[in-house]
Automatic annotation (TrEMBL):
<dbReference type="InterPro" id="IPR013005">
    <property type="entry name" value="Ribosomal_uL4-like"/>
</dbReference>
<feature type="region of interest" description="Disordered">
    <location>
        <begin position="46"/>
        <end position="73"/>
    </location>
</feature>
<comment type="function">
    <text>Forms part of the polypeptide exit tunnel.</text>
</comment>
<dbReference type="InterPro" id="IPR023574">
    <property type="entry name" value="Ribosomal_uL4_dom_sf"/>
</dbReference>
<keyword id="KW-0699">rRNA-binding</keyword>
<keyword id="KW-0687">Ribonucleoprotein</keyword>
<keyword id="KW-0689">Ribosomal protein</keyword>
<dbReference type="Pfam" id="PF00573">
    <property type="entry name" value="Ribosomal_L4"/>
</dbReference>
<dbReference type="GO" id="GO:0005840">
    <property type="term" value="C:ribosome"/>
</dbReference>
<protein>
    <recommendedName>
        <fullName>Large ribosomal subunit protein uL4</fullName>
    </recommendedName>
</protein>
<dbReference type="InterPro" id="IPR002136">
    <property type="entry name" value="Ribosomal_uL4"/>
</dbReference>
<comment type="function">
    <text>One of the primary rRNA binding proteins, this protein initially binds near the 5'-end of the 23S rRNA. It is important during the early stages of 50S assembly. It makes multiple contacts with different domains of the 23S rRNA in the assembled 50S subunit and ribosome.</text>
</comment>
<keyword id="KW-0694">RNA-binding</keyword>
<comment type="similarity">
    <text>Belongs to the universal ribosomal protein uL4 family.</text>
</comment>
<comment type="subunit">
    <text>Part of the 50S ribosomal subunit.</text>
</comment>
């Protein structure tokens, strides 16, 4: 698959680059992507939720009324769940929501996501991105020239660039990452993925089948 290369001013350079089929030409596996995204979201959960049960609520355990002869149901304590201020029945307890996925499945999920981006024409190839000093307006100007400023955008750089990261962190719809740090969730959640031309070789090294 061939894709046009743009410069930081949003102009077509006239060059086309062939995307590696081993990375961007894989038949997408939707179930693998679903599992990887599910694991990512599950790992974001703190799992610190807690509700007090009847043995944890402060209060007297004195029997509030006699057992028989009242015409009502038996009640042994004000801490029972049927009373206001009582404990909760089967309330949430702290737990760990994370679960394990095999490396091959996670790799397939990311390859599927990258191939989906290429097929849906949501991938933008940039020849270079140079920001000398951290400045949000400079980074925003690049996004405006590429007509992606109003969309959720993922920028993929070859390696961590401090100036690019600092220039983008005030933009709520923008995330900057390296190929090694990408997740399936990041790829699928973005409306547009701006990929630097030099990062394609990193994709081949990491995700392509050997």
């Amino acid at each position: 698959m061939d894709i046009s290369v743009f410069n930081s001013k949003g102009q077509d350079t006239g060059r086309k680059v062939t995307l590696p089929e081993s990375v961007f030409g894989v038949e997408p596996n939707e179930h693998a992507m679903y599992l990887d995204v599910k694991q990512y979201l599950a790992n974001q959960r703190q799992g610190t939720h807690k509700a007090k049960e009847r043995n944890e609520v402060a209060g007297s355990t004195k029997k509030i009324k006699r057992q028989k002869g009242t015409g009502g149901a038996r009640a042994g304590s004000l801490k029972a769940p049927i009373f206001v201020g009582g404990g909760r029945v089967f309330g949430p307890r702290p737990r760990n929501y994370s679960f394990k996925l095999n490396k091959k499945l996670k790799s397939l999920a990311r390859l599927s996501a990258l191939s989906t981006l290429a097929k849906e024409d949501r991938l933008v190839l940039l020849d270079n991105l140079v920001i000398d000093t951290p400045k949000t307006s400079s980074f925003a100007a690049v996004l405006d020239s590429l007509n992606v400023s109003a969309r959720k955008t993922l920028v993929v750089t070859k390696e961590a660039d401090k100036n690019v990261v600092l220039s983008s962190r005030n933009l709520p719809k923008v995330k900057v990452a390296t190929p090694a740090a990408l997740t399936t969730y990041d790829l699928l959640n973005a409306d547009r993925v701006i990929c630097l031309e030099e990062s394609l070789s990193i994709f081949e090294e990491i995700y392509a089948k050997k």
